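Input (DUF2642 domain-containing protein):
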Amino acid sequence: MLNYNVNQPFPHHPTSHHVVVHPVDPYVVETLKSVIGKYVVLETTRGRIDGCVVDCKPDHVILDVYGKKFFVRISEIVWIMPN
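Output:
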């Protein structure tokens, strides 16, 4: 019988495998890269934001909104509308 004490780390088995999860949506990244330098409207889980796409990375997009830079997580984007 296994005995686990409170506040003790969970025992790791020598054959355990680590799984790394990368929340990347390649189609959204590809779409955002295709509109770099263009004005877009993004609907996010927190609301709508519009501006010029400055750059796109696998996990976030950078928008220029009236001279201010906004870093938006791609996982938070619901839809994209190029203008």
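The radius of gyration is 20 Å.
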